[in-house]
Design a protein that fits this description.
By secondary structure, this protein is α/β, with parallel strands linked by helices. It contains 28 helices and 27 strands.
Length: about 950
C-alpha cells in the first residue's frame, strides 16, 4: 500500500521467513550490532539529506533512545532500518523498503486498527514501544503532518484493554534507599492505584516478590535485589529520584507530600515512579486519575512471601494441570473489579481482627439472604471495569462506547442498593450507603451519547439529537440538503423525460446527474458536464452544486462540532474521578463478599471463630483438593500456640495436603472468607512460612539442598510466636546422618526459641522421639490399613486419616508398587529390604523396624494423587541400618565354603566395596546408585561365565 507521502506499507499478515532470533539485547547477537531502539545508524549518516518525514522519524528516535519507535503513516505504524527488521521478525510481518534520493531503508508496519497483538509481541520480546501518532489532521497540515510520541508502552505501563488482564493488576514499581530504609512504590497505571511502603531490604524484597511488578525502576542507591519473578528493569532518570524533584512531582497529586510518606526514601520512590508514569503516558502534567496515593504497612497484613504463595498454590499450580489453585476455587466474582480485589485480599489477608470480623459479618448475612445475594451478583455482572474506564476518561482516551459502558455501570447501582435495602449488619449497611449513584453523571451521559455509538468519535453519529442546539441546527441543514438531493432524481426524470437518469455521489467528484449516451440529446441547457464515462456522462446543475457545498460544509461542521461536544461531556465526567473511584472500591468489595458467601453456600464452608489462642479445626478440608477428587477425607487439627506437631506416615498418605489445608484455612479466614470445615477456632497469624518441596536453581548456583537451607534460614530468623510454620522433609537433600541432625536441631530451635505453631512432616522416625524431651511437641501420623495379599506381600490401603502417635513405617516399596513400578523391581526391592534386616525373610512382607525403612518419594502429594515433581523421582532421606548391612555382608562371606558355592574374584571385590561403603554418610540415591553399579558388575561376571 502506498501513502500520500510516498511511503509503502507492508502487509502485516505475511511472514518474513527470517530464522534469526538474536533477542532484544542485540540485533544479531553481537555487542556492537545495530539495535532496534534509538536512532538508526544509516539515517544518522545521512541526516542532512533525509526527507522531512524520515528526518521527523529520526528526531523521535533520538528523543526515545530506549524504545522502538512506531511511526504513524496513514493507517499503519511504521518502523524503519534496524527497528523494521526486528519488528518484521518479532511480529511476523513483511519486511519491505522505502527508497528515495538518499538511499534505501528497510521498512515494516503494523495496522493501527489491529495493533494490540503486535505490540504485545514486542513487549513479550522485551522491548519498549514509543507510539508516534499524527497530532494534526492531514487536511489541515501545511506540508508535513506533525507527529509526536503520545505514549511509551512498557510491560509496567500498559493501559490498552487488549494488553491487560481483568483479573490481575499490572504494577510498575520503583525502589529507592537501602538498608533499614528501603522504600518500594507501586502504581497500576491502568487504574490509578498507587501505594508506597518501606522497611528493611529483606522485607522490601518480600514485597517485590509478592507484588511482582511487571517493570521495576531503581534509584541510584537502591539495592540490586535477586528477584523470583520476571520483570523489565528500567534505568529511569536519576534526577527524578532526588528529594526535591520527587517532592515537586508528588505535590501535583497531594497537597502535602510529606503527609503521605513516612520517610525521604518513600518520597523519592513514589516521586520517581510517578514522573516515569507521566512520561510513558505522554502527559506534561500529573495523571489526574491517580488521585489517592497511599502509604501502607506490610505488618498490617498476614505476611505471605513468594515461597509461601507458590507452595500453597494460591495463584499458580505447582503441577502441570491448570486451575488447581485457591483463587480458581474462589473466583465466582461477577466483574473485573471483584476479581482484582479477590486477588489482593488473598495476597494480603488482614491481621486486623475487627476488619476480619466485619467481613465475616457481611458474608454471614449474605449467606442467610440468598435472594438478596443472587440479585446483587446478577446486577454486578452488568458492571464494567469502572477503574479502568475512569482512567481512560481522565486521560482523554475514552470513546463514546466507553461512556455508554460507564452509564450502564451506573444504571446497575440503584438496583444493587435496592437489593441491599433490608440488610442489617453494619458492614453491609455501610457498603450500601457508600454506593454513590452519580445520578448527575448518569443523566449527562444518557442525554448526550447515543445508545449504540460508533467506535470512532470524529466521524459523527455520537451525540444524541436534542442535546446541543447548534449541532442540531447544523445537522438539520445537512439533512435538508440530502433530502433535496434525494428528491432531485424524480424531479429531473419528470423534467427531462429520461427515465434512466440517476443522481449519485462520489468522494472525488461529489454529487452528479448521470445520463446514458443514447439520451444525451435530451440533456437540458443548465446541465454542466462533470465527468465522461464509457457509456454515459455525468453532469451537475448550479442548484445541485450549491446544495452540495451546503451539505459538505454542514457535514464537516457537524462532525467537528460533535467531537467538541463529546470532548466537553467527557471532560465533565472526568471532573468526578474521585467519586467514581470510590464507587468502584465499594463495588469491588461487595463483589468479593457476595462471592465468599456464594462459595460458602456451594461448598459447605463455615464461619471461623477468630482470636482464639490455638488452632482448632473440626473436620477440616483442603479447599482445592476436595474440588478435584471424587472423595476427600476430612481431618481435625488442634494445635496450641507454640506447639510442634511431628507428622509421620507413608508417602501419598496426605501429610503435605494436611499441612497445606491448615494454612489455607487460615488464609481464607483472615482474607474474610468462611472456611472448609465443620467448625473452626483460629488465632490471628502474623506470618505463614512454608518449607514444602524444593527444586534446583541451577542458574543461581543453588542445589535443592541449598535452596532448602536458604528457605529454612529465613524461617528460623523471622518466624514469631504468632506465626504458622510448615516444614516438610527438612534435611532430605543431604546424607542421612546430617539430614537427621539438621531436622532434630531445627525442631528443637523452633520449639525452644521461636515458639511458632509448627507442623513438621518427616520420614526421619527418630525425630518422633523428641516428644519425650520437648514438652510442647507431639506426634501425629497418617493411618494405613494393611492386609496380606494373594501373593503373600502386604496389601496396603492409605486411609488419609490423621491420628495421634508416630507411624511405624513409610511403606516405600508399597508406594512404588502403587505408582506402577514393574513387579520385578518391586519384588527385588522387597528382597533387598528383607536381606538388610528391615523385614525378616519369613515375614511375608511384614513390617520391620522403623530405623531400617527406606523412602522412595520426596514429597507427599494430595490425597489420592501421586507426586510428579522432579524431586519426587529420586529416593531421599531413607535410613538404612549400618549394622544390618554389615551383618548381611558378613553372612555372605561366611557362606563361602558351603557346599556347591564358590566365591570369584569379582564377588570378593564387590563384597569388599560393600564393606567399605559408609552408609551413614551416603544418601539413599547414592546408595542405590552404588548397589546398581555392583549389581551390574556381578551380572557382567555371569554373562562372561555363559
Amino acid at each position: 500500500m502506498e501513502h500520500a507521502d510516498g511511503t509503502e506499507t507492508s502487509d502485516p499478515e505475511a511472514s518474513t521467513g527470517s530464522d534469526r532470533d538474536p533477542g532484544p539485547d542485540s540485533a544479531d547477537g553481537r555487542d556492537d550490532a545495530p539495535r532496534p531502539e534509538g536512532p538508526p545508524r544509516t539515517m544518522l549518516g545521512a541526516r542532512e539529506e533525509l526527507t522531512p518525514m524520515l528526518s521527523q522519524y529520526l528526531d523521535l528516535c533520538e528523543a526515545h533512545p530506549d524504545a522502538v519507535v512506531m511511526f504513524q503513516v496513514g493507517d499503519f505504524y511504521e518502523a524503519f532500518c534496524e527497528a523494521a527488521e526486528e519488528v518484521a521478525r518479532v511480529c511476523e510481518v513483511t519486511l519491505t523498503k522505502r527508497e528515495d534520493s538518499t538511499g534505501t531503508y528497510p521498512m515494516a508496519g503494523i495496522p493501527i486498527d489491529n495493533a494490540a497483538s503486535y505490540l504485545e509481541a514486542l513487549l513479550d520480546a522485551g522491548y519498549r514501544v514509543a507510539i508516534a501518532d499524527q497530532v494534526e489532521e492531514a487536511s489541515e497540515a501545511s506540508g508535513l503532518v506533525d507527529r509526536a510520541v503520545t505514549q511509551v508502552i512498557t510491560p509496567g505501563t500498559v493501559v490498552d484493554e487488549e494488553l491487560l488482564s481483568g483479573a490481575t493488576a499490572t504494577y510498575l514499581g520503583a525502589v529507592a534507599g537501602s538498608g533499614e530504609e528501603t522504600a518500594l512504590a507501586t502504581v497500576d497505571v491502568s487504574t490509578g492505584e498507587c501505594q508506597v511502603t518501606s522497611g528493611t531490604e529483606r522485607r522490601m524484597s518480600e514485597e517485590l516478590d509478592r507484588l511482582a511488578p511487571a517493570e521495576l525502576l531503581r534509584a541510584p542507591d537502591a539495592p540490586d535485589f535477586e528477584l523470583g519473578f520476571e520483570t523489565m528493569a528500567t534505568d529511569a532518570d536519576p534526577g527524578t529520584f532526588e528529594a526535591d524533584a520527587a517532592r515537586e512531582t508528588l505535590s501535583a497529586y497531594v497537597a502535602a507530600p510529606d503527609s503521605v510518606v513516612g520517610s525521604e526514601a518513600e518520597l523519592r520512590a513514589v516521586g520517581g515512579l510517578l514522573d516515569y508514569a507521566e512520561y510513558t503516558q505522554g502527559d506534561d502534567g500529573p495523571l489526574e486519575y491517580v488521585s489517592r496515593v497511599r502509604r501502607y504497612d506490610p505488618e498490617r497484613s498476614l505476611q505471605l512471601d513468594a515461597t509461601a504463595i507458590r507452595s500453597l498454590e494460591l495463584f499458580e499450580s505447582r503441577s502441570p494441570r491448570s486451575g488447581d489453585t485457591l483463587v480458581e476455587v474462589l473466583d465466582e466474582t461477577a466483574c473485573a473489579l471483584g476479581r482484582r480485589r479477590l486477588a489482593s485480599w488473598l495476597r494480603r489477608p488482614s491481621v486486623d481482627e475487627g476488619e476480619i470480623r466485619r467481613r465475616h459479618d457481611a458474608v454471614a448475612e449474605l449467606l442467610d439472604r440468598p435472594m438478596a445475594r443472587e440479585t446483587v451478583r446478577e446486577h454486578l455482572s452488568e458492571v464494567y471495569d469502572l477503574e479502568r474506564l475512569v482512567s481512560r476518561v481522565s486521560r482523554e482516551r475514552a470513546n463514546a462506547r466507553d461512556l455508554r459502558a460507564l452509564k450502564n455501570t451506573l444504571d446497575a447501582v440503584p438496583e444493587v442498593k435496592a437489593a441491599l435495602s433490608e440488610v442489617e449488619s453494619d458492614p453491609l449497611r455501610d457498603l450500601r450507603d457508600s454506593l454513590d449513584e452519580l445520578a448527575d453523571v448518569r443523566e449527562l451521559v444518557g442525554e448526550a451519547i447515543r445508545p449504540d455509538p460508533p467506535q470512532e468519535i470524529t466521524e459523527g453519529g455520537v451525540v444524541r439529537e436534542g442535546f446541543d442546539d447548534e449541532l442540531d441546527e447544523v445537522r438539520a441543514t445537512e439533512r435538508e440538503g440530502r433530502e433535496w438531493v434525494s428528491a432531485l432524481e424524480e424531479r429531473e426524470r419528470e423534467r427531462t423525460g429520461i427515465d434512466s437518469l440517476d443522481v449519485g455521489y462520489t468522494q472525488v467528484h461529489g454529487y452528479y446527474i448521470e445520463v446514458t449516451n443514447p439520451n444525451l440529446d435530451r440533456v437540458p441547457d443548465d446541465y454542466t458536464r462533470r465527468q465522461t464515462l464509457k457509456n454515459s456522462e455525468r453532469f451537475y446543475t448550479p442548484e445541485l452544486k450549491r446544495r452540495e457545498d451546503e451539505i459538505l460544509s454542514a457535514s464537516e461542521r457537524a462532525d467537528a462540532l460533535e467531537y467538541e461536544v463529546f470532548a466537553e461531556v467527557r471532560a465533565d465526567v472526568a471532573e468526578e474521578v474521585e467519586r467514581l473511584q470510590t464507587l468502584a472500591d465499594s463495588l469491588a468489595t461487595l463483589d468479593v463478599l457476595t462471592t465468599f458467601a456464594a462459595v460458602a453456600a456451594a461448598n459447605g464452608y463455615v464461619r471461623p471463630e477468630m482470636g482464639a489462642d490455638s488452632v482448632e479445626i473440626e473436620a477440616g478440608r483442603h479447599p482445592v483438593v476436595e474440588r478435584t477428587r471424587s472423595e476427600f477425607v476430612p481431618n481435625p487439627a488442634e494445635f496450641s500456640a507454640g506447639h510442634v506437631a511431628v507428622i509421620t506416615g507413608p508417602n501419598m498418605s496426605g501429610k503435605s495436603t494436611y499441612m497445606r489445608q491448615v494454612a489455607l484455612i487460615a488464609v481464607l479466614a483472615q482474607a474474610g472468607s468462611f472456611v472448609p470445615a465443620r467448625a473452626a477456632r483460629l488465632p490471628i497469624l502474623d506470618r505463614i512460612f512454608t518449607r514444602v518441596g524444593a527444586s534446583d536453581d541451577i542458574a543461581g548456583g543453588q542445589s535443592t539442598f541449598m535452596r532448602e537451607m536458604a528457605e529454612l534460614t529465613d524461617i528460623l530468623h523471622n518466624a514469631t510466636e504468632d506465626s504458622l510454620v510448615l516444614l516438610d522433609e527438612v534435611g532430605r537433600g543431604t546424607s542421612t546422618t546430617d539430614g537427621l541432625a539438621i531436622a532434630r536441631a531445627t525442631t528443637e530451635f523452633v520449639h525452644d526459641e521461636v515458639g511458632a505453631t509448627t507442623l513438621f512432616a518427616t520420614h526421619y522416625h527418630d525425630l518422633t522421639e523428641l516428644v519425650e524431651d520437648l514438652p510442647d511437641a507431639f506426634n501425629l501420623h497418617f493411618t494405613v490399613e494393611k492386609a496380606e495379599g494373594e501373593d503373600g506381600n502386604p496389601d496396603v490401603t492409605f486411609l488419609h486419616r490423621v491420628a495421634d502417635g508416630a507411624s511405624s513405617s513409610s511403606y516405600g516399596v508399597e508406594v512404588a508398587e502403587l505408582a506402577g513400578v514393574p513387579p520385578a523391581v518391586v519384588e527385588r526391592a522387597r528382597e533387598y529390604v528383607r536381606e538388610s534386616g528391615a523385614i525378616p525373610a519369613d515375614a511375608n512382607g511384614g513390617e520391620g523396624p522403623d530405623e531400617a525403612e527406606m523412602r522412595t518419594s520426596s514429597d507427599d502429594a494430595p490425597a489420592g494423587e501421586s507426586d510428579t515433581s522432579a524431586d519426587a523421582q529420586a529416593p531421599t532421606n531413607g535410613r538404612a541400618s549400618e549394622g544390618t548391612l554389615a551383618a548381611y555382608v558378613d553372612g555372605i562371606e561366611s557362606d563361602e565354603g558351603a557346599e556347591g558355592t564358590t566365591t570369584t574374584g569379582a564377588e570378593a571385590d564387590v563384597l569388599a566395596e560393600l564393606r567399605e561403603l559408609d552408609v551413614a554418610q551416603t544418601t539413599p540415591l547414592e546408595a542405590l546408585n552404588a548397589l546398581d553399579d555392583l549389581k551390574q558388575r556381578l551380572d557382567e561376571r555371569d554373562r562372561n561365565r555363559d
